[in-house]
Amino acid sequence: METKPEPAVTGKPVKKFDLSSPEWYLNRELTWLEFNKRVLQEVRDERNPLLERVFLLAVVGSNIDEFFMKRIGGLKQQVGANVTNLSVDGRLPQEQIDACREVVGDIQIQKLTLEKKLIKLLAGKRIVITHYSELSKAHRDAIDDLFLQEIYPLLTPQGMDPAHPFPFVSNLSINLLVSVRAPGGDQSHLNRIKIPTSADLPRFIQVGRGQTYILLEDLVANNIEHLLPGVVIETIEAFRVTRNAITERHEEQANDLLSMIESSLRDRKFAETVRLEVDKGILPLHKGKLAAELDIDEEEDVYEIEGILGMSALMQIALIDNPALHFPPHHPVDNPELLGDDPNIFHTLRRHGDVLLQHPYESFNSSVERFLEEASTDPKVLGIKMTLYRTAKHSNIIKYLIDAAQNGKQVAVVVELMARFDESANIRWANFMEEAGIHVTYGVLGLKTHSKLIFVLRKDYDGLKRYAHIGTGNYHSGTARGYCDIGLLTCRPEIGQDLTELFNYLTSGYTPMRQYQKILPSPKLLKKALLEKIEREIEHHKQGAEALIQLKTNALEDADIVAALYHASQAGVHVDIICRDTCRLRPGIKGLSEHIRVVSIVGQFLEHSRIYYFKNNGDEEYFIGSADLMKRNLESRVEVCVPIETPANKEKLRNIIDIQLSNTRNVWEMQSDGTCKQLHSNKPDGEVSIHTLFIEQAEKRYEVGRKALAEKKLRKIPRRKIK
């Protein structure tokens, strides 16, 4: 369908754009890979502390692993099923795989270059990553003893011959392929040895008392004669397999969702191979045999790796305790609005109203966890309802929910069993909570529950009152220290009524159109509302009124939203998009998107919050929530966005948006071809990290709040009478 853009001010004819044409949409996978290139640039940036650069390199390694497991795995399934549907940008599944392979190859080259550079820099700081052959004899003797005592008993060589078929190779494991022959013989035999890494046996083995490390597989390879005595060792080559993580089954056909997910986890373990990584220089015969046994294409799916196989293992090195090589320790402060003498947080919310939380700058523990902890013990709290997508391994959130149930409160938790890579943990938590008497449900059939909600019902002096937390991030204390998220604590009656409706929908699965006063849930309302609000800004602009759209999201993938934003730009509405990774929209195309600016922020913390702003002719609207602008979030998940309505909280969100759009230190500007250009500034404040600025602001807010509280307490102290 052709658009009819408004004539330009000059009166010159304007090009018409067919917004159904794939040329105006970027590829989801390729723009996500571009995000990882931006992370690699942060690895290069010498302004970042050395171990933080190592951490980011490990993150890219982990990201690429997940990319193959999820995205390439899914595309390969489409190829196998002969899917001929084109992506929004006009590519067949195999064409997307081919394009991604080329970019991944470039990323691999960059990773190797950076790995070599960082290892050299680490050595200058007396953190040495070396090879077994480079160790002194004394160190070799000591580590050989360690091998015999702690590692050798865990190893199991598996032969490959007619009596020993090719063994199963588990996902992301490190393996050695060892070729041997009998003394004087001329026939070679292959053996596979899995390297048994675990929390107790890390990938990098410390040598001696200093900070010298070798890889575990290097130690095993240099002691291979203990495993395979009396034979000639011909070659020892490392390899690593990545398996497809897309093993979801049809929920409608499963009598028991819990059993279905457990079965899917077993399927994933044995899923088809999507990538084989091998040592650089592996014998072609061996590479071909591995590819054949794993049933993959040797030309397309095998990657020869120079350097460390499985670069995510560098996370162990990145966590070395050396303060001089890390960012200054960040200690979240308390939200100043939650300070005071109130007997509990519910009194504070009644007195103060809505409280907007900004993590990781403000403490998750003293806000969200406190909210749930006090609800679990408060005798006036009658019930707690919550959605749970991801949580920490040792979770206070779970503890407080169980405490609440044991204290006689009605507790209902909607657990998302299909939270990718957290299914196993969520199954354990679900069973654990059910045993404690908590009502556990698994949401609405066919929809993932991705919303972040805690809902508390309390019998106050004036009747039953509803309190809530609505956030953009998971209830995970670990990620709350490294992810940038926003949360709202509120006791507004309209939101409480909306959440009552929503939880009834989640726990019953009954799906008529429900009435909501404030929140915008998906899949029923959110996308429609966003499209209407974009159209409203267009109408405001046409009428000469104030119009502006600003969207902060992790991903902009939904084609309908992209097309609507193109229409807004064609009408002359300015659009700012802060998008962390995937972005289909092509900014800066004259006549189509010249009024759209797209920036991406990569820095000390991971940007994770979603903020949606509409100028609305001065009657400004701000929303926060769990939903990215992706088709899956808007049409296939239960998400919740909530309006932020108090002037003070709107001002806080305005500050966040303005800083991220005006600063340059961590900011990249997207070009129309999908690449991003790193911004620079000659101004001193422009070269200060965005995240550092937010840390400073949070600390200042806390100090102001603390001093105001102290002065308030001082004023309450009665003066002594002077005789």
Topology (SSEs and partners):
Elements: H1 28-44, H2 50-80, H3 93-124, E1 128-129, H4 137-151, E2 158-160, E3 174-181, E4 188-194, E5 204-207, E6 212-215, H5 216-221, H6 224-227, E7 232-243, H7 257-269, E8 273-279, H8 284-293, H9 298-301, E9 302-305, H10 315-318, H11 345-352, E10 355-359, H12 365-377, E11 381-388, H13 396-406, E12 410-415, H14 423-435, E13 439-441, E14 448-449, E15 453-460, E16 463-471, E17 483-490, H15 493-508, E18 520-522, H16 526-542, E19 548-553, H17 559-571, E20 574-579, E21 596-601, E22 606-607, E23 611-614, E24 621-625, H18 631-635, E25 637-644, H19 647-662, E26 667-670, E27 676-678, H20 690-716
Parallel strand pairs: 1-6, 8-9, 11-12, 12-13, 14-25, 17-22, 19-20, 20-21
Antiparallel strand pairs: 2-4, 3-4, 3-7, 5-6, 7-8, 10-17, 11-15, 15-16, 16-17, 18-25, 19-23, 21-26, 23-24, 24-25, 26-27
Helix pairs in contact: 1-2, 1-3, 2-3, 12-13, 16-17
Overall description:
Helix content is 38%, strand content 20%. It is α/β, with parallel strands linked by helices and 723 residues long. It has 3 domains: 302 residues, polyphosphate kinase like (2-Layer Sandwich); 183 residues, Endonuclease Chain A (Endonuclease, Chain A, 2-Layer Sandwich), CATH 3.30.870; 186 residues, Endonuclease, Chain A. Strands 14, 18, 19, 20, 21, 23, 24, 25, 26 and 27 form a 10-stranded mixed beta sheet that branches. Strands 10, 11, 12, 13, 15, 16, 17 and 22 form an 8-stranded mixed beta sheet that branches. Strands 2-4-3-7-8-9 form a 6-stranded mixed beta sheet. A hairpin with a 2-residue loop joins strand 15 and strand 16.
